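Hello forum,

I keep getting stuck at the same step: I have a sequence, I want structure tokens, and every attempt I make locally crashes halfway through. Rather than fight my setup again tonight, could one of you with a working pipeline run this one for me? It's a single chain of 295 residues.
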Amino acid sequence: MTSDDRVRFDVDPDGRIATITLDNPERRNAYDAAMRDEIARHLDRVAEDDDVTVVLLRGAEGVFSTGADMNNAYGWYGKPGEGSGDETSARRPSQRRRLTVDRKSFGFYHNLLGFPKVTVGEIGGYALGGGFEMALMTDISVIARDTRIGMPATRFLGPALGSLHMFFHRLGPVLARRMLLTGDVIEAGAIEHLGVFTETCAPSALTARARFWAEKAAKMPADGVVIAKEAFRLVEQSQAYQGEEVASYLFHAYGTNLQFADGEFNFVKTRAQHGTREAFRLRDEHFHVPEPDVP
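Reply #2:
Ran it on my machine without issues. Output:
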């Protein structure tokens, strides 16, 4: 299997730190299935390497990730009609196809959330959708104050996405509901006081601060870290993530097969008619509600 050059992998053996860099800047480091699989391969490599204890996850050119690439909304599910018995069909993927693909997709997120080595996120520019999820899943998250974060996909998929357990656990129920029920994209500095991220810093300091935390974590005893990570995961599973393993991909599969009433924004239909860039503009125009002008 060939490697994907949109995902770079480097190892500092003396520092015991591996760095995974999303390098798809023309798409603001959005990722497709091939990129996600490449990230997974690098994570597996680190998990099996006793000489590496920390993974630094970052994006090229100052942008973490805008999440799953929606340029082809159904591309994640294979060719139109694939697996349905009608390879020429242009209909939407079957529910069984959705469940199969989404189960694999959320397997990636579950593995990242329970990864046996310390994960450090260097989060700048944008962390949206799946990029926001990955940022929240890192053990130590360093984010620039002007980073735009959120789940804008809820505006065309609805709030019943996967990782609901994680959103409520990491963001808290009030902020999770606000972000999922509105699709708001906000600056990280606006929630700095909530302690969602390990450190919120100036954009100019982001790379140095992320490296600082990676080096601190790399000083820890490797066996002790692995044991601690499993203990942390056990506590989270018993307190916060019960049922998450199945619920995440079930919610996502059903939530991506919505019926739209007149006047509701249908991203997939709009994208087919106007193209991806214009569909995003029309989405934001549809959901814009001006702040009330009050004294």
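Confidence is low (pLDDT under 50) at residues 81-89. If your local run keeps crashing, start a new thread with the error log.
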